[in-house]
């Protein structure tokens, strides 16, 4: 009959360290996001009306988020009103578990549209990414003080394709609303098609809409916001 030793000698300590390391490597190999440093609710900005990955579309939340990002970009680039290609800066330091997904999402959008580009910064960005646990899932929102941010939920990013979730939420940065009734080929359909959908790219209509919104740089984008407001 086998038995398990419960001693705490050096050999067991080495075995535990090896086991922990092995589990960590296995998790990394699977490519799934795991909490690098779980955030408490107090550290995450307050959520106002939001645009989520699943559930009922909150059009007001999507517009408020886009408006906040545009205002941040406008303030930073006030001395370059005729700039044709606008750069939107993001800070991902508060979502370390999703560093790869965020980078992939930015690359997808940068290769899909031509009038606006996403670029990482370690300083104050036009919007930020956060990570943590929220039963409502991932979403794009504002913090109540005119700043936009994207929240990435751990559980939802394990259930759904994580890069699709991130690219979808980043689509709100560029002005696209949710459309949950759309097919899997539509990035902004979000979680509507279900967890089996792994498409990470915007379709032709979505790409055209983003390029239209940013057609004449920041001035055109702001005009679109005021027209819709």
UniProtKB/TrEMBL annotation:
Q: What class of enzyme is it?
A: hydrolase
The record's subcellular location field reads:
Secreted
Q: Where is the signal peptide?
A: 1-38
Grouped into one coarse class, the protein's main location is secreted
Q: Which coenzymes or cofactors are required? A: Zn(2+)
| Enzyme Commission code | 3.4.24.77
Q: Which UniProt keywords apply?
A: Disulfide bond, Hydrolase, Metal-binding, Metalloprotease, Protease, Secreted, Signal, Zinc
Entry's Gene Ontology molecular function annotations: hydrolase activity
A UniProt-annotated Pfam family? Peptidase_M7
Q: Which reaction does it catalyse?
A: Hydrolyzes proteins with a preference for Tyr or Phe in the P1' position. Has no action on amino-acid p-nitroanilides
Q: Its family?
A: Belongs to the peptidase M7 family.
Q: What is this protein called?
A: Extracellular small neutral protease
Q: Origin organism of this chain?
A: Streptomyces tricolor
Name the gene behind this protein. snpA
């Amino acid at each position: 009959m086998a038995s398990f030793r419960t001693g705490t000698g050096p050999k067991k300590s080495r075995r535990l360290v090896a086991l922990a390391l092995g589990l960590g490597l296995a998790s990394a190999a699977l490519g799934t996001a795991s909490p690098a440093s779980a955030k408490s609710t107090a550290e995450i900005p307050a959520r106002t009306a939001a645009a989520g990955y699943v559930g009922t579309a909150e059009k007001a939340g999507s517009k408020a988020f886009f408006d906040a990002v545009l205002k941040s970009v406008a303030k930073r680039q006030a001395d370059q009103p005729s700039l044709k290609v606008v750069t939107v800066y993001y800070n991902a330091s508060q979502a370390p578990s999703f560093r790869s997904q965020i980078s992939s999402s930015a690359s997808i959008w940068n290769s899909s549209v031509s009038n606006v580009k996403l670029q990482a910064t370690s300083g104050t960005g036009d919007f930020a990414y956060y990570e943590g646990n929220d039963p409502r899932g991932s979403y794009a929102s504002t913090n109540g003080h005119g700043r936009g941010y994207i929240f990435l939920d751990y559980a939802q990013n394990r259930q759904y394709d994580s890069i699709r979730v991130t690219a979808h939420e980043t689509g709100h940065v560029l002005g696209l609303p949710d459309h949950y009734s759309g097919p899997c080929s539509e990035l902004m359909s979000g979680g509507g098609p279900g967890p089996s959908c792994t498409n990470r790219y915007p379709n032709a209509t979505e790409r055209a809409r983003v390029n239209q919104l940013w057609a004449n740089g920041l001035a055109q984008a702001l005009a679109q916001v005021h027209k819709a407001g």
